[in-house]
């Protein structure tokens, strides 16, 4: 007999506004405890010193986490000029200084060089694994992990404010972009040093500060027995995936892990709309969300005139 999972069968996403000083893992643990959820996960790690949007998935929504990890992100960051710190943020030790302070005109002039497909070297104090160990663990042990350059995409950078001490930027980027590295490299292009003094993530895919919940607001909602009002549907992370309405009989087949037949016209439409989409090692370009009466049934792959269930939701 299968062991009964502890907790409540709570399913959905929480648009969480993570506070300063809390790690992403701590945030997930706190929200799972608040909801007494059976399982939980998050999309897109935020450093403890960063605040802002951390989408947290509860229950069956955790099956959609990989689709949100790929989503575009947006940050407001503050670069402090004149110091190079080993962690590239305010927590680190100062290892070099510069008296050069760039002007707003100089900053604006170099920003286009960091927009588009660029290469950056991740911080040594990051969660990237090197020979099976986290880079930050190696760095904290006094070692010097060799960080390899990696390609990332920065869609846009806007200078919001600049003074002699610092600059505030609005950055739109793709997955894997390190804002700390971006700040270091922008400072280097200006002939000085710089580190992240403050970082706030304002958007992850469909999740933004509008409608986000702080920890205090969620705790109050739990106290007032209204915590479920903060839950978003598990398909929130699948907002750009085609949807196919199925019948009751087709729903039964999908829940059994069996494929269903697609109408030729719908199959042709899906094929025409398919776009390249790689999620890790998974080719999700032909993925379709099967629903009945608006309720998600399964994530399926459309191929050879059939929908084959790949992730079935147990709701």
Q: What is the strand content?
A: 35-45%
Computed over alpha carbons, the radius of gyration is 22 Å
The N- to C-terminal Cα distance equals 20 Å
Mean pLDDT: 90
CATH superfamily of the largest domain, please? Pseudouridine synthase
Structural class: alpha+beta
Can you summarize the main beta sheet?
10 strands, mixed
CA-based shape: globular
Count of strand segments: 21
H/E element string? EHEEHEEEHEEEHEEHEEHEEHEHEEEEE
Q: What number of structural domains do the residues give?
A: 3
Instruction: Report helical residue fraction.
Output: 10-25%
Number of helices: 8
CATH architecture descriptor text of the largest domain? 2-Layer Sandwich
CATH class term of the largest domain: Alpha Beta
At the fold tier of CATH, the topology name of the largest domain is: Pseudouridine synthase
Uncertain runs with pLDDT below 50, 5 residues or more?
A: none
What report would you give on this structure?
With 315 residues, the chain is an alpha+beta fold. It has 3 domains: 12-71 and 207-236, Pseudouridine synthase (2-Layer Sandwich), CATH 3.30.2350; 73-204, Pseudouridine synthase; 242-312, Nuclear Transport Factor 2, Chain: A. The protein is 22% helix and 35% strand. It is built from 8 helices and 21 strands. Strands 1, 2, 3, 4, 7, 10, 11, 12, 13 and 14 form a 10-stranded mixed beta sheet that branches. A 5-stranded mixed beta sheet has the order 15-19-20-21-16. The relative contact order is 0.17. The model has no long low-confidence stretch (mean pLDDT 90).
């Amino acid at each position: 007999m299968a062991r009964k999972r502890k907790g409540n069968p709570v399913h959905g996403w929480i648009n969480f506004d993570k506070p300063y000083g809390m790690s992403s893992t701590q945030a997930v643990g706190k929200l799972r405890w608040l909801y007494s959820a059976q399982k939980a996960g998050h999309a897109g790690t935020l450093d403890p010193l960063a605040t802002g949007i951390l989408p947290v998935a509860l229950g069956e929504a955790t099956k959609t986490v990989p689709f949100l990890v790929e989503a575009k992100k947006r940050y407001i960051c503050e670069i402090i000029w004149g110091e190079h710190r080993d962690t590239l943020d305010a927590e680190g030790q100062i290892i070099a200084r510069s008296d050069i302070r760039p002007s707003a005109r100089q900053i604006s002039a170099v920003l286009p060089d960091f927009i588009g497909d660029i290469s950056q070297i991740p911080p040594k104090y990051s969660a990237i694994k090197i020979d099976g160990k986290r880079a930050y663990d190696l760095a904290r042990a006094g070692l010097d992990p060799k960080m390899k350059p990696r390609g990332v995409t920065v869609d846009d950078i806007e200078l919001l404010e600049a003074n002699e001490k610092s600059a505030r930027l609005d950055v739109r980027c793709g997955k894997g972009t390190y804002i700390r590295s971006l700040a270091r490299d922008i400072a280097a292009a200006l002939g000085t040093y710089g580190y992240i003094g403050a970082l706030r993530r304002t958007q992850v895919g469909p999740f933004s500060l509008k409608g986000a919940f702080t920890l205090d607001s969620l705790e109050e909602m739990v106290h007032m027995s209204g915590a479920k009002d903060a839950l978003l549907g598990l398909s929130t992370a699948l907002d750009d995936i085609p949807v196919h309405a199925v019948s009751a009989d087709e729903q039964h087949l999908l829940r059994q892990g069996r494929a269903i037949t697609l109408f030729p016209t719908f199959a042709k439409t899906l094929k025409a709309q398919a776009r390249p989409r790689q999620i890790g090692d998974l080719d999700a370009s032909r993925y379709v969300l099967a629903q009945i009466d608006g309720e998600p049934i399964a994530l399926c792959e459309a191929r050879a005139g059939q929908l084959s269930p790949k992730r079935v939701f147990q709701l």
